[in-house]
Amino acid sequence: MSVRRRRWAVLWAAAGVLLLAGGALLSIPSAALRGREMADGLHPPAPTVRRGDVLGQQLALFSLGGLRSLAAELLALDATTAWLEQDWSRARERWQQICTLCPQRVHYRIRAARDMAKNAVAHTRERRDLEPRQQAMLEAEYMADAERFLREGTEDNPGSRLLWLELGSYYDDLARRPRFAAAAAAYRRALENGADPMYERWVFYNLCRIRGREAEAYALGRRLWASGRHRTPSVQCLLFVLQHKLALPERERLSIAELFGTRAKALKALRRFEHNTLRFPVTGIRRFLEQAGEGQPQHAG
């Protein structure tokens, strides 16, 4: 017997014992009490299961018997099996049932979103039996599922910095169609709920990419620079760029000395940054390099 089969056998044996114990909770008075509790919104509803889904039906009984955590863990095992078998409709269904059972377990939401946005999408792109249009439709569907898991997660857990950070990362991922304004908003919510202050830079990075919000980005960037904790090469170069995009007068700008220390360091940093692949603006850099006699700047090795 394989390790996986033995693990399932042990879990189902334990589940059988617990199901018998949980069934005792389903007496007529207990069922009536649970009905009142659910009507009053004191407990999340049992997961919806489709006809023919034997596992889902059995675990729905577990949840009614007060065994939601066990049912969720068993469903998570089956979601992993679905991943191994690349059965994404089943994986999606399992994750939805799990999140219904345990809406406050934020790690389930994150795992569900990653399973859809990364694993399901990657497999779809590798399929040669699908036409490009079919691939695009499936990818869009899985991405929408991932976003839904995270959005519903933040609705159920508005104080979870982990979920807000995950949502921000989802929105600013350049491998898909990024939404920089939504990403900045998500990172701000994460900060409001206790995320590490370093994520203020992520708000800044996303604002820099949004046309029409350059002044807001610059004000935040100046504050980050003044704090001394965020003096990274990207912040350094973006402040230089934003000053040019906003056409600020010289007296209001940070000087080359204040930003880079020396002109030689400025040339080196800006030469590298001009060819960034992160969709950051580069306004003013070409002109600065040309004025310094750079001609055609070389890519950094």
Structure description:
This protein has 15 helices and no strands. Among the domains are: 59-157, Serine Threonine Protein Phosphatase 5, Tetratricopeptide repeat (Alpha Horseshoe); 223-301, no CATH class. It has helices spanning 3-23, 28-39, 54-64, 68-84, 88-101, 106-126, 132-156, 161-171, 180-192, 200-208, 214-227, 233-245, 256-260, 263-273, 285-291. The termini are far apart. The radius of gyration is 26 Å and the shape is elongated. The protein is an all-alpha fold and 301 residues long. The longest helix is centred in the middle third of the chain and has 25 residues, at 132-156.
| SSE-based structural type | mainly alpha
Percent range for β-strand residues? under 5%
Name the helix and strand elements from N-terminus to C-terminus, one letter apiece: HHHHHHHHHHHHHHH
- Average pLDDT for all residues: 83
Instruction: List low-pLDDT spans.
Output: 14-46, 297-301
User: Under the CATH scheme, which architecture of the domain at 59-157 would be assigned?
Assistant: Alpha Horseshoe
Shape: elongated
Main sheet makeup: none
Number of strands: 0
Helix content: 55-70%
